């Protein structure tokens, strides 16, 4: 019997609607944290045995919980981060879903088991989140029933993991694009100031554009200063105080 035959159509419809809502959050230009929070709340509502849900993100500085449905269960993951082991970290390392219970985890992950028991959690299921072929964390489910999480729960979990991967990939690409645009804007601003500084040197010393640029580069190397800063300092030195004040006012107005 297929999963579709085992589960009421209404539940599948609810899962589909939840994923559409998540797509709406992304399209609305919300932050990554907004998208991840929407993700855990939707997963908690749709996956039958998931009473609470969290997202673990593993980065250069270690693991952290970035979204959750109840603060009480976050400590379960923090204990895993502190010891460097546990089902959520194992799911990330092995790139496979990992199911754990308090009873089954007492020997293998004693700190995890103790924290889970204190929070009233008896069963725990983690699945790795893979972004651009890089495992960056896990999506974690919690239940007070040690029999929780059947194959259908795991199938739904995979859907939400895919949604999480898509969310993070989209935001990574957006951030890369945003940084590139900012870099290009700064480069254009710097180019304009460098050209103005070259013009000042050409007029003051009767040199051509190539020689003026060579002098700016030499000043940059002697003082270990960025070329654009050398150009700005030169322009500031030939501007009157009132001109510089007007320029500062314009910059600040533009920032606003």
Write the layout of secondary structure elements.
Elements: H1 3-6, H2 9-27, H3 32-46, E1 52-59, E2 62-68, H4 71-83, H5 87-94, E3 98-101, H6 102-108, H7 110-118, E4 123-131, E5 134-143, H8 151-205, H9 209-222, H10 227-238, H11 241-255
Antiparallel strand pairs: 1-2, 1-5, 3-4, 4-5
Helix pairs in contact: 2-3, 2-8, 3-8, 4-7, 6-7, 8-9, 8-10, 9-10
GO molecular function: RNA binding
Keywords: Transcription, Transcription regulation
Domain ANTAR: 174-235
What does this structure look like?
By secondary structure, this protein is an alpha+beta fold. The chain has two domains: 3-176, Beta-Lactamase (2-Layer Sandwich); 179-255, Winged helix-like DNA-binding domain superfamily/Winged helix DNA-binding domain (Arc Repressor Mutant, subunit A), CATH 1.10.10. 67% of the residues lie in helices and 15% in strands. It has eleven helices and five strands; from the N terminus they run αααββααβααββαααα. Strands 2-1-5-4-3 form a five-stranded antiparallel sheet, sandwiched between helices. β4 (123-131) and β5 form a beta hairpin. α3 (32-46) packs antiparallel against α8 (151-205) and α6 runs antiparallel to α7. The radius of gyration is 28 Å and the shape is elongated. The relative contact order is 0.09. The model is unreliable at 1-7 (pLDDT under 50).
What percent of residues adopt helix (DSSP H or I)? Answer: 55-70%
- CATH-defined fold name of the largest domain: Beta-Lactamase
Number of domains: 2
Per DSSP, the total helix count is: 11
* Quaternary state of the chains: single chain
Total number of beta strands: 5
Average pLDDT rating = 79
| Major pleated sheet | 5 strands, antiparallel
CATH class of the largest domain: Alpha Beta
Structural class: alpha+beta
Instruction: Just name the CATH architecture of the largest domain.
Output: 2-Layer Sandwich
Question: Uncertain runs with pLDDT below 50, 5 residues or more?
Answer: 1-7
Biggest sheet strand order reads 2-1-5-4-3
Output the CATH homologous superfamily of the largest domain: GAF domain
Label the overall shape.
elongated
Give the C-alpha Rg.
Answer: 28 Å
How much of the polypeptide forms β-strand, as a percent range? 5-15%
